[in-house]
Design goal:
By secondary structure, the protein is mainly α. It has helices at 2-6, 13-30, 37-69.
């Protein structure tokens, strides 16, 4: 049977919970235009500071890589 082949369980509550969370998250982000202004601003700031953090983290890792490569 298919469930035995792929190792799926008979009652997989965890998978159903993940499905509901993913679908709720998709609906939440697809309705971006109807969000209140303060929530939009918060998301813009969160995404900006996340980008700054990731770029600075990448620079730190590149610096460590170049220092190790020069040895």
């Amino acid at each position: 049977s298919w469930k035995k082949t792929y190792g799926a369980e008979q009652s997989n509550l965890k998978m159903k919970i993940y499905l509901v969370l993913i679908m709720g998250g998709l609906i939440f982000f697809l309705l971006f235009r109807v969000w209140p202004e303060w929530l939009r601003m918060y998301m813009y700031l969160l995404s900006w500071y996340t980008l700054v953090f990731l770029v600075s983290l990448q620079n730190v890792e590149l610096t460590k890589f170049y220092r190790l490569a020069q040895r």
